[in-house]
Amino acid sequence: MGTPVVLITGALTGIGRAAAVAFAKEGNRLVVSGRHEDAGQALLSELRGLGTEAEFIQADVRHDDEVRNLVDRVIDRFGRLDAAVNNAGTEGQQGAVTALTKESYAATFDTNVLGTVLSMKHELRVMQAQGHGSIVNISSTYGHEGAAGASIYAASKHAVEGLTKSAALEVARSGVRVNAVAPGPTETGMLNRFTGTAENKAALVSGVPLGRIGEPVEIANAIVFLASDKASFVTGQIFTADGGKTAG
Asked: Which residues pair with residue 86 across a beta bridge?
């Protein structure tokens, strides 16, 4: 079938960037996407330096026409789409439920949920026509737990998990798999913004049985596995990589 082609949204920082590097090291061809041209070109140079065939396409997953164009340009460039990682996301505004607004709701759900819906919509129209493909959405341990002070974020990730399972059932007979990875606390800019202080971050670490924050590459390795043929009998699943945080 040739060298696989992988699309990653939200690829410019954190887990998305680590996934791009991990896929490149596995020999895949890549299209990385995000909203910022300068960061995208820097990542593209790094990926090509690893010897992989790669392209950067600027896109905002909140807009249907931009996502359609993104996927169409992947096909124009490589003729196929074997795997997609829908990583674009935001922690949104934190606070008690009584302090939330429709604006804070929309700011979080438009990226985390609508962005995932639109990405899957266009990825699946290509993958179903091909008769094969693998999608990995990015959730969170808060996608199956509550989160005091982060209810909108948690609700958005619950939605991502429901979307993942529903899409997997819809397309299972077409040869396309849909799964999600749910990271626990991971060393990213989002985590630092989310916790706000060193004390809050330390408190979060205290709830991880392995006694440490995860590294983006550790989450990336799980993503690469689920996207690959090594996980060919896995679909509709939420793969939790959290250092044991949700085990007890």
From this structure: 9, 137
Q: CB count, 10 Å around CB of 196? A: 10
Q: Which position among 142, 153, 194, 239 bears the catalytic label?
A: 153
> CA-based Rg of the chain, rounded to a whole angstrom?
17
Is residue 242 within 8 Å of 184, Cβ to Cβ? yes
What pLDDT, in 10s, does the model give residues 138-190?
A: 999 999 988 887 899 999 999 999 999 999 999 999 999 999 999 999 988 88
The one-character DSSP state at 173 is G
Q: What is the DSSP letter of 215?
A: P
Domains in the chain, ordered, with CATH? 5-241 (3.40.50.720)
Backbone dihedral region of 102: left (phi > 0), alpha (psi from -120 to 50 degrees) or beta?
alpha
Q: Give SS3 for 154.
A: helix
At 93 the pLDDT is 80
> pLDDT tens for residues 70-93?
999 999 999 999 999 999 999 878
Per-residue pLDDT band for 202 (boundaries 50, 70, 90) equals confident
Whats the size of the chain, residue-wise? 248
* Exposure of 118 in the CB half-sphere (CA atoms within 13 A): 22
Give catalytic status of residue 105 as yes or no: no
Unique residue bearing structure tokens 């945080």: 245
- Specify the higher pLDDT residue, 150 or 223: 223
Are the C-beta atoms of 138 and 157 separated by less than 8 Å? no
